What we know:
By secondary structure, the chain is mainly beta.
Amino acid sequence: MIGPGVRQAAAFISGVAVAAAAAGSAxxxxxxxxxxxxxxxxxxxxxxxxxxxxxxxxxxxxxxVLASGESKRGSYVAGMESNGRxxxxxxxxxxxxxxxxxxxxAAAVAKVVVKPGDVISLPGTPIACSADKVSGKPTIxxxxxxxxxxxRPNSYAFGIGDTVVTSLAxxxxxxxxxxKSWPENG
Length: 186
C-alpha cells in the first residue's frame, strides 16, 4: 500500500524533470545574486539557501529552517559545491548530521526572499539554482552548468521543497533521473 508520504514524493518526482530542466533556462522571474555568506528564503516555505566559501570553494546549501534560523531537527539539507559535488545530510540533531548522499561528477546578509520563477546566481561558479513550482509547491533546484550555460552531462543535482528533498543525475544525453528522495517530515 502506498502511504501519503510516498504519494507526496511521487507527485513531487513527476514534476522533477520539467522543473529541473528549467533551472538552466531563462525564467520569467528576477535574477537574485547571492552574496558570499548570504541567504535567500523561498516564498511560502520554510526553506533557506545560503552560500559560503571555504578553502577557496564556493557552495550553496538549502534546508528547512525554524524561525530561529536553525535547521529543523530531523529534516534534510541539500548542498552543491562549485566543483559539482552534491550532498544531502540528515539534520538529526546538532552534532549528529550523517551524510545520506555524496556524489561528485567525474570529469550574514539581509534576508532575501525568492519566489517561483526566480533564478539564484552564484557569481564565479558553474552552479545554477532556480525557484520553481512542482505539483503546486515551491521548490528549489540546483544544477551544475557547462561553459555554454547548459546543464552539464553526467552531473548531479538536487531539488528541495517543504515535503521532500531529491538527488538527481543528468545523463550524457541531457536527461534527468531521480536517484533518491527523502521525506521532509523531520
